[in-house]
Amino acid sequence: MSEDKLPSRNENFSEWYNQLVLKAELADYAPVRGCMVVRPYGWALWENIQQALDRRFKETGHVNAAFPLLIPKSFLEKEKEHVEGFSPELAVVTIGGGEVLEEPLIVRPTSETIIGYMYSKWIKSYRDLPVLINQWGNVVRWELRTRLFLRTLEFYWQEGHTAHSTAVEAEEETRRMLNVYADFAINDAAVPVVAGMKSEKEKFAGAVRSYTIEAMMGDRRALQAGTSHFLGQNFAKAFEIQFLDWNNELQHAWTTSWGLSTRFVGAIIMTHGDDQGLILPPKLAPVQVVIVPIYKNDSEKGRVLETVARIQSELKNFRVKIDAREEVTPGYKFNDWEMRGVPLRIEIGPKDVDKGTVALARRDRPGREGKSFTPQAQIAVQVGEMLEDIQAALLERARAFRAANTHDVSSYAELAQVVQDGWAYAWWCGSAECEAKVKEETKATTRCIPLDQPEGSGKCAVCGETASQKVIFARAY
User: Fold this and answer.
1) CB 344 within 8 Å of CB 363
2) CB-side exposure of 331: number of CA atoms within 13 Å?
3) pTM of the model
4) Rounded to an integer, what distance in angstroms lies between the CA atom of residue 290 and that of residue 449?
5) pLDDT of the chain, 477 residues: tens digit per residue
6) Cis? peptide before 130, omega within 30° of 0
7) Which has the closest alpha carbon to 270: 189, 334, 158, 194?
8) CATH number of the domain that 377 lies in?
9) DSSP per-residue codes, 287-335
10) Contacts from 327-335 at CB under 8 Å and sequence distance 24+?
11) Residue-range definition of the domain harbouring residue 338
């Protein structure tokens, strides 16, 4: 393998992923174990994810705020299930300003507790509800096994926290935000997801119910891509979030929380990438179109660059980059931008200037299959249509891959075999014993109980008892 060539995706998916993140300059390893530095290209992708989500949040009535990074340890201890769930992952500050602190501070792993405390100060009446707040920030979870974007000690995310006057309204909010995540994943990231509920064992610590969007990666493993939690009154009671209702009676609020992180960058890489590098969905790509001028001498250079400048101005509604580097060959540039996953490449040489055409190369179809020529006069329309087609093609390809690798199973032997290299869709009785058996013996977990359920009932694939729900079992990140 040459220095610039990626490992084969099929032969070593893990190393392919690690090398790709580095070579495409999305992120790098930080000097602190398990932390990452997100490089400008990776941050630009995350910014586009942020904007796509933030727009949706605001359309559904949410506003942004910022809460502290440091949380008093006593706050986490108020919600027993919550602190038990997070205690192995906590980073604790015990010294500040050279002195031992009276109370240790937790570097936030999530913000339910600090936000719950603030909501108890702000919410007094039903007129104060609902409270619909989102926060963009970073959190710290002391993970033992880390991987860039997918699982790091510190990561970036958004976390929504809302408070409501009724359980029905809070449940509606929980499901609404799950749908927002699914809409973003499918329509912006071209990542097909299954929306469903987590099992009791797999739910968020302190939640009544947890919902998730699960995506199949290129190695057929599952990735939890976003979660939304109905917290009931657990945190409201722990932090005394109370309000006077319409009858002037004191009630505890009903709360939710939901989050999506930089882990989704990993989802995009592992869903769409190939042996040449990234393949980015046009709606989120930092650069949608790269223009590569091709010339041999100064005479050709002047004519070509003049045409390039005009084409660039006609494509002002797209995110366009001109690669004017002279120290590398056009072939090097092609490979470089393929590695970075730019959806569309435009090549312009002297012959293209003479003919009034440009060469277009689609990233999702390598080689001659993705190459075409179009008149310069129609360039903006052609580029727009081609980017739309690439976006749709990526989604369709990912859907077809998931369908081909998801299998209905009826026996435990079949389930155990399928989850080694795919998703098993099976009837499950709901017992923790059956769930634990699958995890212990196959390393697969219940990824979700899909919201879209078949009618009737069946026999649990693990124990054979009557089951009323089907679940996805898979190995996961």
Assistant:
1) yes
2) 0
3) 0.95
4) 42
5) 335 789 999 999 999 999 999 999 999 999 999 999 999 999 999 999 999 999 999 999 999 999 999 999 999 888 777 767 778 889 999 999 999 999 999 999 999 999 999 999 999 999 999 999 999 999 999 988 899 999 999 999 999 999 999 999 999 999 999 999 999 999 999 999 999 999 999 999 889 999 999 999 999 999 999 999 999 999 999 999 999 999 999 999 999 999 999 999 999 999 999 999 999 999 999 999 999 999 999 999 999 999 999 999 999 999 999 999 999 999 999 999 999 999 999 999 999 999 999 999 999 998 888 999 999 999 999 999 999 999 999 999 999 999 999 999 999 999 999 999 999 999 999 999 999 999 999 999 999 999 999 999 999 999 999 999 999 999 999
6) yes
7) 189
8) 3.40.50.800
9) -SEEEEE--SSHHHHHHHHHHHHHHHHHTTTS-EEE---SSS-HHHHHH
10) 330/292, 330/294, 333/290, 333/292, 334/292, 334/361, 335/4, 335/276
11) 289-389
In a domain, 84, yes or no: yes
Nearest to 447 by CA among 280, 275, 227: 227
Q: Please say whether the beta carbons of 253 and 162 come within 8 A.
A: no
- Is 232 in the same domain as 332? no
Which residues are bridge partners to 473 per DSSP?
A: 424, 446
Residues 354, 452, single domain; the answer is no
> Residue 250: beta bridge partners?
244
CA distance 451 to 470: 10
Mark whether 200 and 94 lie in a shared domain.
yes
Question: How many helices (H) does the chain have, and how many strands (E)?
Answer: 14, 25
Note the helical H segments in 8-86.
Answer: 13-23, 40-59, 73-77, 80-86
SS3 call for 125: strand
Tokens of 106: 């937790």
Query: Are residues 268 and 294 located together in one domain of the fold?
Result: no
* Residue 404 to residue 190: CA distance in whole angstroms: 17
In the chain, the amino acid numbered 458 is G
DSSP per-residue letters across 44-58: HHHHHHHHHHHHHHH
Residues facing 259 on adjacent strands = 159, 227
What is the distance between the alpha carbons of residues 163 and 178, in angstroms, rounded to a whole number? 16
